[in-house]
Amino acid sequence: MARSTDPQTERIDLEKEFLDQRTAGKRKADSRNLGKRSISVRIGGHEYRIRSDADEEWLQRVAASVDDAMRRIRKHTGTVDSLDVAILTSLNLARELLQLRETGAAGAGSKPEALRELIELVESELPADASS
Q1: Sign of the CA dihedral with 24 first, then 28, 33, and 34 last
Q2: Which of 60, 65, 108, 124 keeps 20 to 30 A from 21, CA to CA?
């Protein structure tokens, strides 16, 4: 976009460009969420709303599996901190997944969408600043 030498016009051009970029970003985010609905799941005593196009019953089973894995880790390690339990659980689940992939177990690695959903569930248990 060509910039004007008039400061007022240049400011308006910059504001328009900024708004155009925000609108484009929102349209892109909206298109990714098309067909997805918000599903409530309970993990570790907390309720989470997950946007997904997956079957709700299946997603509830996935959440129950994550909840059960976290409960086992908490009991086995005596760890109290939720972040530590979530990290240990995600490591354990990732280890199990890699073992299944490496041994070529039936169905392992053949459902990338299911894996993505499971990863989203584990990540939703982590605080926002834990990803860095």
Answers
A1: positive
A2: 124
In percent, the amount of the chain with pLDDT more than 90 equals 36
The chain-wide mean pLDDT, for the chain, equals 78
Token pair of 28, please? 């892109």
The partner residues of 20 in beta bridges, in order of sequence, read none
The DSSP symbol for 50 reads: E
DSSP letter for each residue of 29-48: HHHHTTT-EEEEEEETTEEE
Q: Report how far residue 125's alpha carbon sits from residue 86's, in angstroms, rounded to the nearest whole number.
A: 6
pLDDT score, position 11: 65
Going from N- to C-terminal start, the domains of the chain cover 54-131
| CA 37/CA 53 separation, integer angstroms | 6
Q: Whole-structure pTM over 0.90, yes or no?
A: no
Closest CA to 88 of 130, 46, 132: 130
